[in-house]
From TrEMBL:
One of its GO terms (biological process) is DNA-templated transcription termination. Pfam families: mTERF. InterPro entries: MTERF, MTERF_sf. The keyword ATP-binding does not apply. Transmembrane segments: none annotated. It comes from Acorus calamus (Sweet flag). GO terms for molecular function: nucleic acid binding. The keyword DNA damage does not apply. Keywords: Transcription, Transcription regulation, Transcription termination, Transit peptide. Belongs to the mTERF family. This is Uncharacterized protein.
Length: 132
């Protein structure tokens, strides 16, 4: 765990955020350093601020989601009319949107789009609502 903490510090993640990540998303530290570092690079490339709480949730979401599952979830969002940029935008607000199962995601999107008649832009702007 020490080398991963050092990498987070080197990337500007404050100590209190690292402590929170260990407390709330310790599972992310169980993966190999290569996978952890790759997740860190992906999250940084998205432009998520390392000092924000979203940053450690985003790292945990990326590191704990297999690449194939990530792509399947991306395709599911696209099937509801989202672009890749839309998914990234929502992820930057609520990284847990990629951590839920495809089945739950499909049910929620169906409800919000077809039953509640929310527009896609509303869901993208308020992705927390889909994390129920």
């Amino acid at each position: 765990m020490g080398p991963k903490i050092a990498v987070l510090r080197d990337h500007g993640v404050p100590h209190y955020r690292i402590s929170a990540m260990i407390k709330h998303r310790a599972r992310a530290f169980l993966y190999g350093s290569d996978r952890f570092n790759e997740a860190l690079m992906i999250v940084e490339k998205m432009g998520i601020d390392p000092s924000s709480s979203v940053f450690y949730f985003a790292i945990a979401s990326v590191v704990c989601t297999e690449k194939s599952k990530w792509e399947e979830k991306m395709e599911l969002y696209k099937s509801f009319g989202w672009s890749e940029d839309d998914v990234v935008s929502a992820f930057k607000r609520q990284p847990q949107i990629m951590s839920i199962s495809k089945e739950k995601m499909a049910r929620m999107m169906d409800f919000f789009v077809n039953e509640s008649m929310w527009g896609l832009s509303t869901i993208i702007q308020l992705p927390r609502a889909t994390d129920v």
